[in-house]
Amino acid sequence: MTKKVTTSTLLKMKEQGQKITALTAYDASFAKLFDEQGVDMMLIGDSLGMVLQGSDDTLTVTIDNIAYHTRAVRKGTQRSFVVADMPFMTYSTPEQAFINAGKLMAAGASMVKVEGGDWLLDTINALNQRGVPVCGHLGLTPQSVHVFGGFKVQGRTDMQAEILLDHAKALVQAGIQLLVLECVPTGLAEKISKAVKIPVIGIGAGPKTDGQILVMHDMFGISANYMPKFSKNYLEETGDIREAVKSYIQEVQNGTFPSELHSFD
Ligand code: KIV
To answer: What is the pTM of this model?
Structure first.
C-alpha cells in the first residue's frame, strides 16, 4: 500500500527543500491518473466553474458542486493529498463555514481552501478547533475578481506587498497548514515562502515557492479560448496525457517550471 501524503508529509517536503507538485482534479479517472504518476496534492478547485461549467468566473460554483466532484476525486485517489475549495459566499461567517466545510470533509476532502486575508482569522481558528485543516489563498483570489476589476497580478506595489506578507503571517498564526499564492511577483512569493514555516504552493508566483499547482485543463492546453501566461501546455510537448503529467512533475521538481516566461516581476 502506498503511503498517503498528509500535512506532515508536505511540511517535511518543505523542510527538506523538496518541491511539492499539485494539480486540480475534478473526477475519479483523472484523479487516478494523477495519483499514479505521483502528483502530491490534488485540489477540487472552484475553477471548475470556468473549466467544467463554462462560466466567466468562479462565482457560480456551489458547495454541492464541490462536494460532488470531491467524492469522485476521492474515489480515484490512494496517495495524493486531497484539498477542496470552499466556494464564494459559503464561509462568510464561522458558523456558515463549519456547516459547509463539514460537507466537503464528509465528501472526502482532507483539507478545505478559503480565499482571503485577515477577515478569515476567526474562521480558520474555529475550523481548526473542530478538526478541519485549512489552506489559505492569497494574491489573485478569483472570488474577488469584481473587486480587483479583472484577473490581475497582485502585490506589485510596496504597500500591497507588505499587506500580503502580513496577511500570510496572520493566516499562519491562525492555523492554516498550507498556502496557495496566485499571480504575485516572483520576489514577493519568495519572501513570503521564506517568512512562513508552512508550505507555500504557487500558481503564477514564480519558481521560488515550495511547490506549484496548475489547473489541469490549462496544463493540457484544453481550456476554452485561453492559456494563462503562467501555465504551460505539457500535452503539446509530449503528445500523451501520462507523459505530460510526468513532464510537469519533473520540471517542478527540478525547478525548470515555472521559468521567467511563466512568472511576473
Ligand atoms: O480553483 C482553483 O483551481 C484554484 C487554483 C487556481 C489554485 O484555486
So the answer is: 0.98
